[in-house]
Design goal:
Aldehyde Oxidoreductase, domain 3; 4-stranded antiparallel β-sheet; Pyrimidine Nucleoside Phosphorylase, Chain A, domain 2; single chain; globular; alpha/beta; binds uracil; Transferase, Pyrimidine Nucleoside Phosphorylase, Chain A, domain 3
Length: 408
Amino acid sequence: MNIIDIITKKRLKEELSYEELSYAFNSYLEGLVKDYQMSSLLMAIVINGMSDTETFNLTDIFLKSGDRLDLSSIKGTKIDKHSTGGIGDKITLIIGPIVASLGVIVPKMSGRGLDYTGGTIDKLESIKGFKTSLTEAEFIRELKDIGFAITSQTSNLCPMDKYIYALRDVTGTTESIPLIATSIMSKKIAGGADKILIDIKCGEGALIKTKEDANKLKTIMERIGAYYQKETICEITDMNTPLGTNIGNALEVMEAMDVLNGKQGKLTDLSIELASQMVSIGLNINLEEAKNKVLENINNKKALNKFLEFVKYQGGDISSLKVSSYKEEVKSKKSGIVKSIKALNIGKLSCSLGAGRLNKEDMIDYSVGIVLNKTIGDKVNINDTLFTMYKKDDTKVLIDIDDYYEII
Ligand code: URA
């Protein structure tokens, strides 16, 4: 077998066998297949797709590249949550503590950024001292002690996804249903939870742009979950507009805390909806009962306290969170009502300010990002601030407002 024949076969839209997929991906892990060859194969997969059989097989290959966590020593239902990612998506940081404060265990393995945003791990690293890489024993101990833990992918859980994910991030190969399904489901199954909730973000600021693709991803992921006997629920949620007001790593942690402190809005509504789903399947109660419990633990601050307990447990100093002092306000040139905010362009702008990666080796600046001062439906006057950029330095950023805000 050789990698060039495998790439060519995929380029010609032929189905790859288990052996061919295993050879290509395992050889990449061993360093025998090079970055440029794997990039080429990934691009062929993005363009020509994969059959369901190929997707199931590749998930199995990813899963077998490492160990599977055994969480059976932890009492209670363990529910993992995952998002396919979007601009300003800090929901894990909100619903993990809510759900854990209600007695459902939330073991969460997270990734770094994919495309234009930092991932949950990047966001948490904006907290000084926060340990994002836990050993298996540390992860399990924390789950037993406080019911919620987040760790980056450890080297022995789905190592294949870790390397492929980093390569996809910088080669324009993120937007592929089979690759997303494989990446997410292999990690979730290896992570050892009993049940899985997946938030499929759909819209211009997400990896998945159309409802049709979101439904395809939902179907294949729920089927893979069922095959591995993990109840999997996929919710499709909107990502045409950035989620919440803050985009950027430290800024997003701050907004997560604001929501746990009672801030209202679309981000809060969605967090309540997803948290209620998890509590419902975790405690075997109906959705309405679950929602009441979720609201109660936001109002009585138990969820916020769980978040603070979690940060402290993993060594973080929440008082260290800071945003850059180099601010630039972007003002409106016309008056009217905000009709839309272009999530993808806001994401790209935030990335160019330093909040995301363009190359695998890029360092993130945790203190930069964007705060949206006006949101959809808001009335705007000439010279009102639409959004504020937090920058690395005082270099002026050239902005064409129409690229970001539609005002009618
Ligand atoms: N999240 C993942 O873990 N993998 C993907 O491919 C996309 C989103």
